Amino acid sequence: MMLAMLAMVGVVFVWTMLFPPNQAQVPPDRTDVTTQQTDAAESASAPPQLSSGSNEPLPPAPAAEAVEPRTVSFQTRAFDLAFSNVGGGISRAVLKSDNPELWKGYKFEQVFKPGKEAEIRPVDLARVKAEQTIPGACEISGDAAVPFSTVYQLEERQNGVTFRGGTSEVTVEKTFDFADQGYDFRATYKVTNNTSATRSLKLSVIYPAFYDPQLLPKAGLFAPPPDQIQAMVLDDGDAERMQAGKKVEEKTFKGPIQFVGFDQRYFLGAAFPTDARGTSGRLFTSEDGRYEATLVFDLGSVAPGQTVERGVGFFIGPKSHDLLNKVSDAARRGVLSSASDERAQTAFADPRLAESIDFGWWAVICRALLAVLNLFAGFVHNWGVAIILLTVLVKLLLFPLNQKQMASMEAMRRIQPQIQELQKKYADDREKLGMEQMKLFQENHVNPMGGCLPMLVQMPVWFALYRTLYSSFELYREPLFSVWLTDLTQGDPYYILPAAMGVTMFITQKMQPQMGDPKQAKMMLYFMPIFFTFLMANLPAGLTLYIFTNNLLSIAQQAVLRRKYNLNTPAAPSSSGK
Asked: Of 97, 287, 401, 431, which sits most exposed with the smallest number of CB within 10 A?
């Protein structure tokens, strides 16, 4: 039974790697975004208002003069940031650690092709292809049009930029403001109707990205888990994700939208509305690695001369659970996460950015494990040691069950001679053999299923720890030792730990009584450790470390228990001697 449980663990791990959960199924056809009439959006400091100009007909505004392309750069503690007036948005967003004592600089580097030929690059969440627009660019559609590719007048300020441009019918003014610290900033989009007629308009704010599909590892039985690269949206509380496939795909969402963005496993680039009313969304992916996530505002009917304002927040940074919650709480209060303003505003939307962390089915357990690991890491300042302490803690919590399991296994070991006698005696009568075995179990107070319960309890911890390592920035690129196991979220490059885990698994199985056909049991005794060694070779080293430590503790506990039984418990009498 124990071997069957181990085999099931392997199957589920393989299934998880080859078929990751929560991938959105999307139709290939394009559809229109469902729009809604909305009240006015809020400004950054008060409930949102529509800025009204004169209702008298206005003459058309003169055509905009030609503007030369221009880029301005800023250095903050969190970013190497650049804005371009071609599209009026973010052309570079290279991440840095804004708190080196908490997060080392190497955590903000991306590893391609893990192993001896690994490539390390900085994380730039504004990287796009030449034909794509840039994050923060906007489009006006409806009764008038301003394209994403519009070239704007650019005004540089100390901690921000302002863009102005548009057409003779509609002009757009957008401002971006950021602080010296923090991975979030704010933007305001003002749309003015310059015509003499009322116009029905929509404002679309886009977050595009590009990720070369050639850099993605191929999924396979003994291959590392594939990276999580996807466009995503939080649509009325439901997270939807779209990965690039073999064809162009697009899907629309009715809203209200909490955020849209580009999810890169341990990092997130996202745009979120300060007021989610009247918002809808759109996701787009292509086979060549282009991703687009679009936040759409229905501006309704805009009167002549009227200016409509919408607020958008941006988060470009690591997917730390605590950081995402902090930014979301600040956004709900209408301030930046680095601000000291503690105003209790309630009129702003909560982007719920922590929903971008894909823990899958094991979310509740994953969050508990991450909280415990955070606690241990705060004391020992090493996430590998924290995983070892977590293993000890789980072992202590399961000690009563493990004690019963091992007592049951030792009892099974003592009656093995009787079981073998019954197997020889009733080799041709399986039904009679089963009845006699159950009788023997009852006489010796042995539960043949008793050894399975601790394994069943441990399985959710294994799966949840795998998802935690796979999805948590806190563990990303964290080492056990500086010269070996330098990244607990990647496999051991020298395969030392998987081999050690396989050896300890063999020892634990060798110490267990063999059930069923002896030849089959002997075959599984060697097959399962070898299979799991290859299976764990490219899985996160942190998970292998947990299983290896758990095996060592089980070997020690079982050795103590066997000594106790050998010294204090007489062997069970043979059933034939009655």
From this structure: 431
DSSP 8-state code for residue 575: G
pTM: 0.81
Who has greater pLDDT, 409 or 161? 161
Instruction: Tell whether the model's pLDDT for residue 46 goes beyond 50.
Output: no
| pLDDT higher at 305 or 558 | 305
Least confident piece of the model among 117-121, 273-277, 303-307, 451-455: 451-455
**At residue 36, does pLDDT exceed 80?**
no
375 and 285 housed in the same domain: no
CB atoms within 10 A of CB 260: 30
Number of domains the chain is built from = 2
Q: Are residues 482 and 439 in the same domain?
A: yes
- Closest C-alpha to 311, from 327, 295, 293, 329: 295
Q: Which of 332, 357, 382 is the last residue of a domain?
A: 357
Q: What is the rounded CA–CA span in Å between residue 521 and residue 516?
A: 7
Owning domain of residue 92: 28-357
Q: Region 467-477: what's the mean pLDDT?
A: 91
Residue 205's nearest CA partner among 127, 330, 311, 80 is: 311
Q: 203 and 342 share a domain?
A: yes
Instruction: Give all strands (DSSP E) within 167-321, no chain letters.
Output: 170-177, 184-193, 199-210, 229-235, 238-242, 249-253, 257-264, 267-273, 279-285, 290-302, 307-318
The answer as to whether 22 is a domain residue is no
Own/partner long-range contacts of 253-257 (Cβ < 8 Å, ≥24 apart): 253/33, 253/280, 253/281, 253/282, 253/283, 254/34, 254/36, 254/280, 255/34, 255/36, 255/279, 255/280, 255/281, 256/349, 257/233, 257/281, 257/295, 257/296
Question: 315 and 440: one domain?
Answer: no
Does one domain contain both 341 and 371? no
Average pLDDT of the chain, as a whole number:
82
pLDDT band at residue 48 under the 50/70/90 scheme: very low
The pLDDT assigned to 550 comes to 92
Q: Buried (b) or exposed (e) across 485-509, using 16+ Cβ within 10 A?
A: bbbbbbbbbebebbbbbbebbbbbb
- pLDDT level of residue 55 (50, 70, 90 thresholds): very low
Contact 25, 546 (CB under 8 A): no
Say whether both 200 and 348 belong to one domain. yes
Burial of residue 32, with CB atoms counted within 10 A of its CB: 0-12 exposed, 13-18 middle, 19 or more buried: exposed
